[in-house]
Amino acid sequence: FDPPQKCDSVKSKKQNSYCIKTVQPLQNQILIHYLKSRKLNIEICKMYLDEVYYTINQKKYFGVGFKNDKNQYEIRNKYAKLCLGKKWFTHIKNQANHVIVFESWSDFISLLTLYPELEKSQDYIVLNSLSMLTKLDAIFQNYSEIMFALDNDEAGSKATKLYVDRWQNSLIDIRFIYPNSKDINDFLCKSNE
Question: Which of 84, 121, 191, 193 is deepest in the core (most CB within 10 A)?
Fold first, then answer.
């Protein structure tokens, strides 16, 4: 268990003060139900997600937490989608020559739910925000192959095209693995209906 962080009313951009009270392994049935509603494998979720209890302006909340490389948390639950702390990407390293890039942790976990054998065979970057792509050029240089699994929307398509042009032979758009779907999680949900 992580000890609760010292709370000195950290201000976010919205000027809401927040404080992380407790971070613990995933066990809350409300959060597990939320993850199951998104068709995610709970055992895989438990390896990459935490249960985070926090306050914003003295009001108590809890959610699924996915840690980024600045030790801050992306928080999700049925009602909330926010970052406690500095927005940043998450780089999961397995000493592979290939990296798969996702917009969100739910897409990363959806891929592992669909193809659990891939877990240790690739490196992964979860952007946590498309804006994080601009910070990855130095990291991308370490890979012989970069696979983009971004959203099938205008922003995801624009970013994919830009990076395919920039990295040419090294970068592959793999959105064909989730056809007619907004993202991998959408594809996973549709395939389990």
Answer: 84
